[in-house]
């Protein structure tokens, strides 16, 4: 029996036997990761694309998992209460996680963590987004935390599958304990939109993670991350693909931040075009009353013999000689746009860690990939972005989660 048929049968039988809440959205994602690990739609010097013979299997399996998720949601979804004005609570949860039948939008989540025994709980949601860092509670202690989450369709990459309807939260940590939860429609929220590529996006499968996927855990209630980064995109394709910029721009409201990090895939974009595309994005954000922020790209882990990253591959100089970080800095200065120089910051960090120490930041050990980050690396890089948002006053001081 083919691998797709086997995994489909396991998925459907598990749902029939246990129900959606017992199976858990996290396990459905893991099923998808099983076949995904055979090949990767990658970008950069170390990536390997799917072989032609693998592509039909990948498409069939993704459809199978999506069908299973849709079936499970239809069988067991909690009746929608989004328009009643009442908070949704613990009745929507199991020991593994929670499912809330809500429409796309922005939601405030307040949790009470802890129990009779000592506990340590972290919360992720939707497409592997880290929403709350691991939080400890002593035996008999209960700790209250709040965060704001963006629910959208598709729930991950904009050109990817729709995902599971509603809001899904997964409980993790060394000893998770959820005592109570309240989910309400957010009324006063500042959005941080992310425009970027695979180094930023909500990656669907382990071990990959974009820094935008890890950023929400560093922000408190009242600030929501809407990650519209998409694998493989350049400034050219982001502007031309209808599911990307044409979808994002109408969502921007006055006061929203829009962080733009596009460079890794502008390998054949000439300097004039690259500059013009950045200017178009900046103007488009301002047209809607938003605040653009230009972000230079994370470095590739590509060392010289002297232990530095002073080369075009590491510092994102394309085959036409276009120095992407330099152009971004120039546009930021000319357009009076805040700049997060992530190239400089990641270069300093990777060089300080050295050849061996920096392997854990990227997927060198797992994939021999020096472009894409691990969950650990994405979390570290998201912390650098958080620090700059705070230092430059781009978000209110009380909105940043320091510890």
Helix content: 25-40%
Give the H and E element order: HHHHEEEEEEEEHEHHEHEHEHEHEH
How many domains in all? Answer: 3
What sort of overall outline do the alpha carbons produce when their principal axes are compared? globular
The major beta sheet can be summarized as:
5 strands, parallel
Describe it.
The protein is α/β, with parallel strands linked by helices and 403 residues long. The protein has 3 domains: 3-76; 79-187, Galactose-binding lectin (Jelly Rolls, Sandwich), CATH 2.60.120; 188-399, 3-Layer(aba) Sandwich (Rossmann fold). It is 33% helix and 21% strand. The chain has helices spanning 3-18, 20-23, 25-36, 55-76, 211-214, 235-240, 245-248, 271-287, 324-335, 342-357, 364-367, 375-391, and strands spanning 97-100, 105-113, 119-125, 129-137, 143-151, 167-175, 178-185, 190-196, 223-227, 257-261, 291-295, 339-340, 362-363, 369-373. The strands form 4 sheets. Strands 9-8-10-11-12 form a 5-stranded parallel β-sheet. A 4-stranded antiparallel β-sheet has the order 1-6-3-4. Strand 8, helix 5 (211-214) and strand 9 form a beta-alpha-beta unit. Helix 1 (3-18) packs parallel to helix 4 (55-76). It is globular, with a radius of gyration of 21 Å. The model is unreliable at 1-83 (pLDDT under 50). Belongs to the 'GDSL' lipolytic enzyme family. GO terms for molecular function: hydrolase activity. Residues 195-346 form the SGNH hydrolase-type esterase domain. InterPro entries: Galactose-bd-like_sf, RhgT-like, SGNH_hydro, SGNH_hydro_sf.
